[in-house]
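Each field is listed here:
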Amino acid sequence: MTSRIEITRTFDAPRELVYAAWTEPKHFTHWWGAPLDTISMDVRPGGEWRATIVVDEQTQVPFAGVYREVVPNEKLSYSLLDLSDDAEKEAARQQRDGDTEELVTVTFADAPGGTELTFVQEGNLPEDEVPRATEGWGYFFNALDEHLKSVK
């Protein structure tokens, strides 16, 4: 099974700032829902990233991945792995069955009025989870837009 989510959005902010929001914990914490002390980012090919979204005291969702391609202010490509208990079981099944991981690619381009961001997530997300994941990314991008307005 191959899934794909693609979202293109223009932000009223310079490309360097939009890129920084994806690569610097001090920005990432404001829109991704992860407390600063749960975020680590080694932004280089082969470098790892981790962040834990905290919904409430009982609900925390850890994510991790490895950067595949890094072109400053132009492109990021990284793996995305949900490390929550159920997701870990699913990841183990995928690895056993030879499924590929989720891969996120984000491109940044100058556009009238700011920066055009194109987001693509590809992998083996179950078909019934794609609409929920797409909606979730929409919430993230709304929060990113608010953060960028507050710092530009």
Summary: The chain has four helices and seven strands.
